[in-house]
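User: Fold this one for me? It's Myelin protein P0 isoform X2.
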Amino acid sequence: MGRAGPMRGVWLGINQGTVCFLLLSCFEALCRVASSIPPLHFLSPPCTRTRSRVGLFLDRLLSGLRHPSFWELPAKPETMLTLLALASVVLLGIVPEQSQAIVIYTGWERHALLGSDIRLSCSFFSWRWTSEDVTFSWTYRPDGSRDSISIFHYTGGAAYVDNKGPFRDRVEFVGNPGRRDGSILIKNLDFNDNGTFTCDAKNPPDIVGRPSSVRLLVFEKVPIQAGVITGAIIGVVLGLLVLIVVIYYLMRFLVARRVFSLSVSKHGKKKKEGSQQRQIKV
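Assistant: Here's what I get for Myelin protein P0 isoform X2.
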């Protein structure tokens, strides 16, 4: 996959800058060597005075390179930096655009009822904008078979559905290529539809990516999945723990309230007895 994210772009820029520097260095070395070569007569027969246009052009080119004013550097460093920057931009424009890998996403496993419809999702991630030449391809491999058949293909803004295979008139494109969505809808499911569906996407120039697969299982009654059972057990356990905590704090509150009422009544009783003793003394 290589370096992902902005680091990949930085690394690519460093490589291109290094290539530009090497090209400039080689060009300078060749020009300096050429300036020391004596006048040549390219493609000119030694016994005739006839000279070809190519030979005349090359002779004039080397004569210009040998001229001392060609190697006079500008007085200001800023001018030299500007020339180097322009040369780098030109060379970067010449370097061909490199392709990067894309990542394709589908589900792992889908369950559906007999006779129902199901949407198989497919999307991809790419560092580039969505190309007008984006393509999506779906293939199907039945359970117990090693061969895959093509059931859908999207390219050039048009969707092409297989009208001769097992999904004849039952596949519909419901994706949005502009949003990198290549989902399809399979209608009226049958037990023979059990198998593996593989999605492949291309976003030129990014065409390198591993296809993603999703397995479809058709049931007469959708079974309860293990994850649902596990979630139910965890929910029951958490509910019991919460109930125990609530009962514990409720009991503490009732006990504290009982103790408070007993202390208040005891204090009031002592106060009443004290007042009665005072009345007797009087």
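One thing worth pointing out: Residues 226-281 form the longest helix (56 residues).
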